[in-house]
Every structure is written in structure tokens, then in C-alpha cells.
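re the bet — no i am not wrong, look at it urself. input seq straight from the record:
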Amino acid sequence: MCLGVPDCQPEPARSIPFGMSDAEKKARLAEALRQNLRKRKAQARAQESGESPEAPPKTRFNAS
């Protein structure tokens, strides 16, 4: 409890915004999708050229 202290939260807790705007969420999603597409294309090129492609991330569909 913070008795007599106006702002006693640690620095990281104060700097995290309460929520993102819809535009921020869309921008983050778009960037994540672009990165994923780049990675998948690189994997496909590596597989076509016979190189050992980077393993895809584990999902519930390929977790075995």
C-alpha cells in the first residue's frame, strides 16, 4: 500500500498504456503478418533450393 506517496508504482507498470487504440492494434497485426509472410517465403525459397529451412514454429496443428 502506498501511504503518503502519490505514485509508488514501479517504472515499468507506469509506462505500460492501459489499452491500445484500434489503429495501433491494426498496425501491430499488419506488421506481424508481414514478418510472418517474409519468413514463410524465405522458408519456401530455402526448401526449393535444397537448403535446410528453418523449422516452422510449433502450433497445435504440428506439435508432434
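see?? Residues 21-48 form one domain. told u. also The mean pLDDT is 76. so pay up
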